[in-house]
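Final report, section 2: Outcomes. Of the targets proposed, Glucose-1-phosphate adenylyltransferase is the one most frequently requested by collaborating groups, and we therefore present its record in full.
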Amino acid sequence: MALPRLLVLVLAGGAGGRLQLLTANRAKPAVPFAGVYRLVDFPLSNCQHSQIPDVWVSIQQHPTSLADHLANGRPWDLDRTSGGLMTLPPFQGTERGGWNTGTANSLWRQAELIRGFGADALVVVSSDAVYELDYREVAEAHLQSGAEVTMVTTEVDAGDAARYGIVEVDGDRVTGYAYKPDEPATTTATNEVFVFDPGPTLDRLEQLRSEVGEEGLEDLGTHLLPAQTRDGLARAYPLKGYWRDVGTVESYWEAHRDFLSPEPPIDLDDPRWPIHTRGGRHSAARVLDDGQIENSLLSGGTRISGNVRGSVLSPGVVVEAGATVLDSVLLPGVRVRAGATVTRSVVDDGVDVGPGSSVGGEGDVTLVGLRARLDEGTEIPAGARYPDPE
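The predicted structure is given below as tokens.
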């Protein structure tokens, strides 16, 4: 019996504004994570381990930052003569051309291409979360259910529930759906992985477009998913393992704390399900002189002569003698000069923390880098305090 033909569409074109300066010059899926990875590595690795060879990535914001990382798809075994990785930029020339204004709008613009592919099931995923999931297993459950859409769900904290699409479930049947509700009815959220029956779903999008217009389609949760739920055609598939949305600075920082645990929620090197990335461009990390490391992740090319505790250091980071880095995430190329202190912070690419300066402290996570009151530069002057307490 032949396996069902699956197509994965990775939605990687959002602005990612909640990550602030981290997405000022890069696409959200290209944001570094856990030192050597990028956020898009998680859905692409899921595709590889799910044995799905046809993966399309919808790109839009800062596309070169993502295209440079994706290359030809080789790290995820997607560099194929037939099928494999294909990027979908905004286009012109047909009535569906134009800038994507939401996830449902993006799906509508690619409808003709999707129909032509002839998939048995269309898997649509976002690329701003950290998790492992067998997409083929979800798709096969979806095909057996007869549903028009299967929503992968997870439980979230009550205080965060308003950030997500929230569902009410009876067995595996979705009986209620609300997109980012002011007063969530449950804490069961969709985790932005959906399996659609392509034909009926695209037909429904056409009908919705005739009612609300192209831009009115907005996100999948605005009109499409509520309509499928009202018609009794939505099913839920609970994700049993770890899932963490990293779409805000606070959640991005907290996710890194998860992976500093003695037993991290995902073994990124698990031989049964490794997370692949484009890498291999840095030498081994070095701890020099009086360097001290405690409960931290060090990437290749890092040079440590100071004190690093509870932190994640990306490739090329330098911590000089007498400097201290506490509970922080330093992105590629950051240099912390002698005597400087960085505490509870996320420091963007290439920032030079001057000698004797102080970044962050107790309370909210501090985000620092280009366009973060650094006068369009990437240097914190010697002896400065950031943020300025005044």
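The helical segments are 41-49, 63-70, 103-109, 111-117, 135-145, 198-212, 224-230, 249-259.
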